Amino acid sequence: xxxxxxxxxxxxxxxxxxxxxxxxxxxxxxxxxxxxxxxxxxxxxxxxxxxxxxxxxxxxxxxxxxxxxxxxxxxxxxxxxxxxxxxxxxxxxxxxxxxxxxxxxxxxxxxxxxxxxxxxxxxxxxxxxxxxxxxxxxxxxxxxxxxxxxxxxxxxxxxxxxxxxxxxxxxxxxxxxxxxxxxxxxxxxxxxxxxxxxxxxxxxxxxxxxxx
Length: 212
Description:
Distance between the termini: 27 Å
Structural class: alpha/beta
Radius of gyration: 16 Å
Low-confidence stretches: none
Order of helices and strands: EHEHEHEHEHHHHHH
Number of helices: 10
Strand order of the largest sheet: 2-1-3-5-4
Strand content: 5-15%
Shape: globular
Helix content: 40-55%
């Protein structure tokens, strides 16, 4: 699985710790981690939580990433921005129980964490436990197990609803503020990671028109 890590500007100083913790859990399981920044609060390329939604949608819809881990101060803004776009199903995750139940019940492809809440002693332990519960078992099995069948059915229904209520990302990107989109894709490693991993030719072409 290709996992994309995205931090917005208010929490960028924590990027290195988040990346290190994520890699320590995900890489031994065979997953790849791609850090799309922000890498520090002083980065030239600043990301807002709205731009997180744009970047996450581009990565997930193109196939450049299979899963996005992101967040903001409360996690709420990043979650809302991600869910504003097609092909993104983002959960708000505070603790390991949230992480496990999201994968089992909702079977989404992104989580948003509250990086400014409870960030004291042991914060890296909670992060590690959250990441462990994300990848502990096959997703979409349902929880509790006796609820598996209706939960799997509801997830399929939600996927179909989102297909109707959202337009194609290729149609959406040209109608957004060009500077907002360019800023979302301006990270120093974006081109290297994206073009090496993206699969959807229509989105690749749209991104080339934006970033050159």
